[in-house]
Write a structure and sequence with these properties.
Bound molecules: zinc ion
Radius of gyration: 23 Å
Number of domains: 1
Distance between the termini: 86 Å
Structural class: alpha/beta
Strand content: 5-15%
CATH architecture: 3-Layer(aba) Sandwich
Helix content: 40-55%
Shape: globular
CATH class: Alpha Beta
Length: 301
């Protein structure tokens, strides 16, 4: 009798577990449907030509304020290329490290882009932890391999404008950061050259020459950047803090939500409103005809 009871209990537990499994599986809902305002926002975006590719080294390097403003305010196609997947970093929310952390951070970046409207790209570069300089990074990665990946992303995404987060020198700090700017500048020159990485053309890609490359400076590193931008014709400033009446959010609020997706790094970014200036230095390409925001769109130049 006792034996039968325990068997019955086991069967009941199994049935319950199966039921729970089925409920969980069937609870996976179809993707959320956009509301009327979001649909109109997407339709407006279809009317805008132009694209921008932001290039960084790690998950969390990207400037979500600029990305949110470009993708939603300027309504241009906006990509973020992270050379690595951040697999060499710390994990503040779980035991996963190395490859497993790289998978988590990949998902965090994808989730961030779903919120800020950008598209996410990577290269094969491994985040091997701190690097003293770009030369060391290139030695460990294989410079030509990673450069070919950056060229491939440019030929695939076809950006009018490329923006780097870092300068191509030791001011970038981490060697991966410095390397990301060096590769961006070299790839800018090579993506339009049919002699560069011709195997990509045989695979069906076409050459693509981006129009301009900017460096996204920060007052974090350069305290007097606001003054420099007023007088130096190579520097451009843009206010990314506008409010989007269709989305009911400011671009900086969207940016805060996007940045908060870096959960394995313990991020919780504030959602702000009001003016927010970003500074861009023209590094390559022709000078925009005016210092205004039309800089970014091929169609409006
Ligand atoms: Zn970084």
């Amino acid at each position: 009798m006792h034996h039968r009871l325990s068997q019955a209990l086991r069967l009941a537990a199994l049935a319950l577990a199966t039921l729970q499994f089925l409920t969980t599986t069937s609870a996976q809902r179809p993707p959320a449907q956009p509301n009327a305002a979001e649909i109109l926002h997407k339709m407006q975006k279809l009317n805008v030509l132009g694209s921008v590719l932001y290039i960084v080294a790690h998950p969390d390097d990207e400037n979500t304020k600029l990305i949110a403003w470009l993708a939603n305010g300027k309504k241009v196609r906006t990509g973020n290329l992270s050379l690595t997947r951040g697999d060499g970093g710390q994990n503040l929310i779980g035991p996963e490290l190395g490859d497993a952390l790289g998978i988590i951070r990949t998902q965090e970046l994808m989730e961030a882009r779903r919120i800020d409207g950008g598209e996410q790209f990577f290269t094969r570069a491994v985040d091997f932890g701190y690097s003293k300089n770009a030369a060391e990074s290139f030695e460990k990665w294989g410079k030509q391999e990673v450069l070919s990946d950056v060229v491939r992303v440019i030929r695939t995404f076809r950006p009018d404008v490329i923006i780097t987060r870092f300068a191509p020198d030791r001011s970038a700090g981490h060697g991966h950061h410095e390397a990301s700017a060096i590769l961006a500048e070299e790839a800018f020159d090579l993506a339009g050259d049919p002699k560069a990485f011709p195997e990509q053309l045989e695979q069906g890609l076409e050459v693509w020459q981006p129009r301009r490359l900017f460096f996204n400076g920060s007052t974090w590193w350069k305290k007097d950047l606001a003054d420099i931008a007023k007088s130096d014709p190579d520097w451009f400033s843009v206010d990314v803090g506008g409010y989007d009446p269709l989305l009911g959010l400011s671009y900086t609020e969207i940016a805060g939500r996007s940045r908060s997706m870096h959960k394995s790094q313990g991020f919780g970014a504030a959602e702000t409103r009001g003016e927010s200036l970003e500074y861009l230095k023209l590094i390559k390409g022709d000078r925009p005809p005016n210092r205004g925001l039309r800089t970014f769109s091929r169609g409006s130049i």
